[in-house]
Write a structure and sequence with these properties.
The chain is mostly helical. It has one domain. Helices cover about 75% and strands about 0% of the residues. α9 runs parallel beside α12 and α12 packs across α13.
Length: about 300
């Protein structure tokens, strides 16, 4: 297989994993981007794409052309194709699995996300007391956010759709903060899935516009943080992932209060799935680390 085709297929498959995560409340596509090793490149590519858009809006052809040339299209196009494909397919199947087997799915996702804590930890050059403080603060914030009560809105207004999409898309590229969960908190998760499945194009167009606006602003900020404050940003990501584990605890009351398993709740099977998810991500982390050591000059 030609190298370009092999890499494109590789990124497409990584995009499938990210898109599948983005549609699950409690699981972050940004976490999966860290797991599969494309997080920093993805944020930089999105930032350059936003710079191109700004150049076009300002009628600055030279700036737009320079930004266009720096966009990592070899990553962005196949990865984006995988994300969109997974979102379209997952919108039909994943919510059904979550409805039929909520505790089992939560247990699996809890193990997957918990193991991903190793990834930003490995990317830090050193661990200092200030970084620990950042991680703790981010964990407290994520724990609070994931405990917010969820709203239910059957027919949200288009302005609400735009604003909610702008907020949720920021979470989708932040490891540990689930964009789908924020859509639930903001009350438009189910209506959005229904709009995709029933092809409500006006709703979809407004949602995409809001997501684009939010992503355009936030990606520039995040790219700057990763370039100038890398270790501090990684510490914050560790905290966000750890705090957001609250949203994946399988045993909760109807109002989201955490509790121990009640009589009749599945325990062994949920634990087994959690351990399976943890082991799968740990294996991916080990494989990625070994691959980087073997080919230190390559960017995958």
């Amino acid at each position: 297989m030609p190298p370009l085709l092999r890499h494109s297929l590789d990124y497409f498959l990584r995009g499938l994993l990210m898109g599948g995560a983005d549609i699950i409340p409690g699981v972050s596509g940004g976490t999966i981007a860290l797991i599969v090793g494309v997080y920093e490149r993805l944020i930089a590519a999105i930032s350059h794409l936003v710079s191109f858009g700004l150049g076009v809006v300002r009628f600055d052809g030279e700036a737009a052309l320079d930004a266009w040339r720096t966009v990592d299209w070899r990553l962005l196009l196949p990865l984006g194709g995988g994300i969109v494909t997974a979102l379209l397919v997952g919108a039909r199947f994943i919510p059904g699995l979550m409805a039929r087997y909520p505790m089992h799915m939560q247990g699996l996702f809890l193990g997957l996300v918990a193991a991903s804590l190793f990834i930003p930890w490995q990317r830090m050059a050193r661990v200092t007391l200030p970084f620990v403080g950042i991680a703790v603060g981010a964990a407290v914030a994520a724990f609070f956010l994931t405990g917010l009560p969820q709203l239910q809105v059957s027919q949200p207004g288009l302005l609400r759709v735009f604003g909610s999409a702008a907020v949720a898309i920021c979470a989708m590229i932040l490891p540990g903060v689930s964009g789908a969960f924020l859509l639930e908190v903001l009350g438009i998760y189910t209506p959005t899935l229904e709009a995709v499945n029933t092809q409500q194009w006006t709703y979809i167009a407004v949602f995409i516009a809001g997501a684009g606006a939010g992503l355009g602003l936030f990606s520039k900020i995040l790219d700057a943080l990763l370039r100038h404050y890398h270790d501090a940003t990684m510490a914050a990501l560790i905290g966000l992932i750890a705090g957001a584990l609250r949203a994946l605890w399988p045993y909760t009351t109807t109002d989201g209060t955490l509790q121990w398993p009640a009589s009749g709740d599945p325990i062994g099977s949920v634990l087994a799935l959690g351990l399976l998810g943890f082991a799968a991500v740990a294996a991916l982390v080990w494989w990625g680390t070994r691959r980087q050591r073997q080919v230190p000059s390559s960017i995958t």
